[in-house]
Amino acid sequence: METIIRKTDPFRPDEEVIAQGAKILQQGGLVAFPTETVYGLGGNGLDADACRRIYAAKGRPSDNPLILHISSLEELAGIVKEVSPAAKKIIDAFWPGPITIIFPKAECVPYAATGGLETVAVRFPSHPTAQALIHAAGLPIAAPSANSSGKPSPTRASHVAHDLDGKIDMILDGGSVEWGLESTIVDPTGDVVTILRPGAITLEMLEKVVGQVAIDPAITARPPEGLVPKAPGMKYTHYAPKADVTLVSGPKDALIRKMNDLARQSMAEGKKTGLMSTDETAPLLQADAVLSLGSETDYAAIGAKLFDTLRQFDALGMDVVFSQVFSEEGEGMAIMNRLRKSAGYKIIQAQDEKGE
Ligand code: TXA
Ligand code: MG
Q1: Residue 310 near residue 241, CB atoms below 8 Å
Q2: Contact yes or no for 302/293 (Cβ under 8 A)
Q3: What is the CA(285)–ligand 2 centre distance, in A?
Q4: Beta-sheet strands, E only, within 23-152
Q5: Taking burial as the number of CB atoms within 10 A of a residue's CB, which of 68, 106, 329, 342 is the most buried?
Q6: Rg of the chain's alpha carbons, rounded to an integer?
Q7: For the chain, where are the E strands, in sequence order?
Q8: What is the reported pLDDT for 217?
Q9: 3-state SS, residue 289
Q10: pLDDT tens for each residue of 278-306
């Protein structure tokens, strides 16, 4: 299959390009498009065959449900059974925007979209190109991140092309995305609103709107054997570049020393070695490649660069990458959740001179 790639101004999407994408979606085809979080791989969310094509293109396990994307609040009523008072508060505060909400599904939503679940995840993105495409298609659009399953999510059209060229009908190239990490997923169907995946809408922001908020334990640690995270996708290895990633934590001086030691050792073993750092630490580090995620005072920028930087290490042919860690505050929870998974939960503690 030849994949059509068309550029469009992200904020003033080209009508002709949008119409072409919408037509493909209506005919059951697959179109990748930018959102404010990451690029999505869209298909008709009410068409079980289109959903199956999405799983096939990504190589995604079929029990990992898809998110349905809408372009107006009116469309929500057609795909969910009910909107709880807590869900209503979250919608009023954060939609359109980078948060996905779980609802009991309406009958028309196929199990092929929900991985067999009775619930459906819904998102109303704020990105003008995403909104225009969904609106023109006139359908709820199922869209997982537009990467091969297990790879870092795509934050540029070139990442989508790298993973999916020849496997999907079209890519709308709207440049780099704004957030760079996937949406927060929140489940308001139980007694306590629970975050299933951290993202740009933080724990602190949600607490202000709905009061008490719980966090699915799978977010901060490797789920123990047998315990299934509430968002089925969270159980799979994710965000893994080809390079073997390990996290390094500790006070700054010890951290720098440890990262340099680890890099030296690894290069001595003949492995091409990269260090993932910040603007503050990069000048103090040495390895085959030292890439900075940005200033440690700007977590939004670090989140936006994380997946692109992991892909850059691959492009540079690194065998091994050591990354520093970040605090879990605010957007840090989303950054650390993705980093821990990309490292398969491997973390080395750097000790200071006193061995503390
Ligand atoms: O930012 C985003 O959310 C992007 C853009 C394209 O909108 N999409 C995205 O989709 O990240 P995906 O498929 O890569 O991640 C969807 C996550 C998976 O972890 C899946 O298990 C979870 O949402 N999910 C979907 N439906 C669910 C449901 N009914 N209950 C619990 N988790 C669900
Ligand atoms: Mg994904």
Answers
A1: yes
A2: yes
A3: 31
A4: 31-33, 40-44, 67-69, 99-104, 119-123, 141-142
A5: 68
A6: 20
A7: 4-7, 31-33, 40-44, 67-69, 99-104, 119-123, 141-142, 170-173, 184-187, 193-197, 213-215, 244-249, 273-277, 289-292, 320-324, 347-349
A8: 87
A9: strand
A10: 999 999 999 999 999 999 999 999 999 99
Paired strand residues for 185: 100, 197
Q: What are phi and psi of 329, to 5 degrees?
A: -70, 145
Which amino acid, 87?
Answer: A
Per-residue pLDDT reduced to its tens digit, 252-284: 999 999 999 999 999 999 999 999 999 999 999
Residue tagged 């396990």 (tokens): 61
In angstroms, what CA-CA distances link 136 with 9, 24, 71, 78?
16, 11, 9, 17
Nearest to 161 by CA among 171, 153, 169: 171
Atom of ligand 1 nearest to the CA of 119: 29
Ligand 2 centroid – CA 145 distance (Å): 4
Per-residue b or e along 116-141, where b marks 16 or more CB atoms closer than 10 Å to that residue's CB: ebebbbbbbbbbbbbbbbbebbebbb
Residue 324 is encoded by which pair of tokens? Answer: 């520093």
Beta bridge partners of 245: 321
Question: Cα separations (Å) of 169 from 4, 132, 165, 172, 177?
Answer: 6, 18, 9, 10, 21
SS3 category, 212:
coil
* Residue with the two structure tokens 């290895």: 237
Ligand 1 centroid, distance to 122 Cα (angstroms): 9
- Alpha-carbon torsion (143, 145, 148, 149), positive or negative: negative
pLDDT digits (tens, 9 = 90+) for 99-138: 999 999 999 999 999 999 999 999 999 999 999 999 999 9
SS3 103: strand
Report residues whose beta carbon is within 6 angstroms of any ligand 1 atom.
35, 37-38, 40, 64-67, 100, 102, 114, 117, 119-121, 123, 143-145, 182-183, 185, 196-197, 230-234
